[in-house]
Amino acid sequence: MSEFSKLARQMWHQIEPVHASLYFSPEAFDEAARLGYDVESRWPSYFAWRTAPLGAAGPKLVTGTYYSFSPAAVAEHVPGIWATARPEAVLQARSRAVDRTLRTLLGDKVATPELAEAAVLAVRAAESVEVVHRPLAAANLDLPWPEEPHLALWQACTVLREHRGDGHLAALATAGLDGCEALVSFAAIGAAPVSNFAGRGWSDEEWAAARDRLAVRGLVDAEGSATPAGRALRDQVERITDELAAGPWRTLGTESAQRLALLNRPLLGAVFESGMLPMVSTLGIGSVRAPE
Question: Taking the CA atoms of the chain, what radius of gyration do you get in angstroms?
Fold first, then answer.
């Protein structure tokens, strides 16, 4: 791995939880309920919050940009979410949700010079991203930057997170893994229990068929665990993902990226200490080793 590929992975660990706070915070669920979304499940608001920068996207576009969600799971929510609230209203509520969430997490620290400096650095990295074949990163980058530093920091983290995610989908496609196979192969290396992927909407039959396809390729064994070839393929996916995510960190530079990580630490710590995030992530943070 190159220096900046390694740095990209390290910074992903810094920004992913900040971005993800939107999908789990009580304040965000409150804003979603005010819009009219059913918050008994997190998925209606998740699809609304994450998709709104694309506009009133249809199920094909959302399936394509989300990749690992089953078309049936997407169709359950899209385009219905736009009948509840238009994308413009969702984006306004998203901003309120992030504002309330970060103020709850940080208290008086939301207005510190250190957080303002973190926002400047994160925005600089986000504005440098390559947007070709990066639809979710590009859509978020098209949004105006908020004046408040804590909101700008969250938006920059979101651009950088989606930039990495868009690249990850390219890596999965290069490896010849479709949406369900991507999850099966990820569970096979122990990234998270199979049950944790249920929210992506694949049926037991679809999951079993994907596992059978991977077995034919020699990527999983009879128990569904990754073979050496399966682990090597997942290492390839992670390596390509890191390489494709390196651009903004190469632009920002190692010293500034490390400074951003230091300045972001109070917010990152507050997110973890809140207990809002799941104990086991389906992203593999903390359970998937970096490729050598």
Answer: 19
Predicted confidence band of residue 279 (pLDDT cuts 50, 70, 90)? confident
Residue with tokens 């010849």: 176
Residue 289, pLDDT above cutoff 70: no
State the Cα–Cα distance between residues 42 and 38, nearest whole angstrom: 8
- Quick check: 122 and 251 in contact, CB under 8 A? no
The two structure tokens encoding residue 94: 């998203």
Q: What is the pTM of this model?
A: 0.95
Cβ atoms within 10 Å of 74's Cβ, excluding its own: 24
Quick one: three-class SS letters along 228-275? HHHHHHHHHHHHHHHHHCCHHHHHHCHHHHHHHHHHHHHHHHHHHHHC
| CA distances to 20, 34, 94, 159, 180 from 28, in Å | 11, 10, 7, 19, 29
The residue among 61, 42, 50, 62 whose CA lies nearest residue 87 is 50
Q: Which of 190, 210, 214, 188 is nearest to 201 (CA)?
A: 210
pLDDT at 80 over 60: yes
Q: What is the pLDDT of residues 15-72, one digit of tens each?
A: 999 999 999 999 999 999 999 999 999 999 999 999 999 999 999 999 999 999 999 9
Beta bridge partners of 124: none
- DSSP category for residue 190: T
Give the integer Cα–Cα distance in Å for 128 and 125: 5
Beta strands in 117-203 (DSSP E): none
Per-residue confidence at 278, pLDDT binned at 50, 70, 90?
confident
Q: Each residue of 253-267: b (16+ CB within 10 Å) or e?
A: eeeebeebbebbebb
Amino acid found at 171? A
